[in-house]
Specification:
Number of helices: 10
Distance between the termini: 66 Å
Shape: globular
Strand order of the largest sheet: 1-2-3-4-5-6
Number of domains: 2
Order of helices and strands: EEEHEHHEHHHEEEEEHEEHHH
CATH architecture of the largest domain: 4-Layer Sandwich
CATH topology of the largest domain: Metallo-beta-lactamase, Chain A
Radius of gyration: 19 Å
CATH superfamily of the largest domain: Ribonuclease Z/Hydroxyacylglutathione hydrolase-like
Largest sheet: 6 strands, mixed
């Protein structure tokens, strides 16, 4: 087989709607790696993209997940089953949920219900511990011409890392550097953070944005959705939105509203804050705003208990 150079392919996983969640295929020589793998339903799409590159599942060297939220890692077991020579790379706190996903699956089924869970995520099985490798903060991995550097980035999830690729000067940011759907980019960059449950921490989230923006990358590959090159502009927007979210968090915690009404309180504030995007593409960001409101409300309730 002809030797190929380092490449990145953005794959639309067709999760919920088109251009909503991506996986990334990296090729290095005659090997490949996936970063993010969405759900079990997306695995045939990923393998089809691999085939278009003239590669086979046995050529996949690494399967990498930024964190174990199911729109990023739900397809891990099926993809690993299809790729017999692959090693899965994960954050140390994420690995245990990939090796034994029972708790993760059980809690998600309670949230979504069995029917919706199966429709969204399909089957999630354990992955042999021998095939999982954890990556420490700042740890590097040499793969052909590439050096991959793993940066732990809290704020969205405590088990989250980003992957900096020396060959392309790209960083794969999971949910730590916001969401930038293509449909919202018609009038310039529009990016907003994910503050979804359960680990939202505005101070850590802002620190992660700063770390990503200053890491030396010239492009960021967002799972939601695809590459952006204006990292400075993204930093400015994300920090402003996170400042708003942090204030909203404390407003919610300090309010006299009962816990049961905090999510609605936060959602109303977020819809007002993102009024232009809601008016233009309310259906597209409806789920994100609800998740963001739930995440802020969840932390507000914890703050109340802490201050009792």
């Amino acid at each position: 087989m002809e030797k190929r150079g380092a490449e990145i392919t953005t794959i639309d996983c067709n999760y919920v709607v088109p251009e909503f969640a991506a996986s990334f295929l990296l090729t290095e020589g005659n090997e490949a790696a996936f970063i993010e793998n969405n759900t079990a339903h997306s695995v045939p799409i990923l393998l089809a993209a691999l085939s278009k590159k003239g590669l086979k599942p046995s050529d996949v060297r690494y399967v990498i997940v930024t964190h174990v939220h199911l729109d990023h890692a739900g397809g891990s077991s099926m993809l690993m089953k299809a790729c017999p020579n692959a090693t899965l790379l994960a954050h140390p706190r994420a690995a245990k949920h990939l090796i034994d996903p029972e708790k993760l699956v059980s809690s998600a089924r309670q949230v979504y219900g069995a029917e919706v869970f199966d429709r969204l995520y399909g089957t999630i099985e354990p992955i042999a511990e021998s095939r999982v490798r954890t990556m420490s903060d700042g740890e590097t991995l040499t793969w052909g011409t590439r050096t991959l550097t793993f940066l732990h980035t809290r704020g969205h999830a405590n088990h989250h890392f980003c992957v900096l690729d020396s060959a392309s000067r790209a960083i794969f940011t999971g949910d730590s550097f916001g969401l930038a759907y293509p449909a919202l980019q018609k009038h310039g960059l529009f990016i907003f953070p994910s503050t979804s449950p359960t680990d939202f921490d505005p101070v850590e989230a802002k620190a992660s944005v700063e770390r990503i923006a200053s890491c030396g990358a010239t492009s960021a590959y967002l799972t939601h959705f695809g590459p952006i090159t204006d990292l400075a502009g993204a930093r400015t927007q994300l920090l402003a939105h996170l400042d708003f979210s942090e204030k909203l968090l404390h407003d919610a915690a300090d309010s006299t509203l009962p816990d049961s009404e905090l999510s609605d309180f936060c959602l109303k504030a977020l819809r007002s804050h993102f009024k232009e995007a809601v008016n233009a593409h309310g259906k597209l960001i409806k789920m994100d705003l609800q998740l963001n409101a739930d995440g802020i409300a969840h932390v507000a309730k914890k703050l109340r208990k802490k201050n009792e």
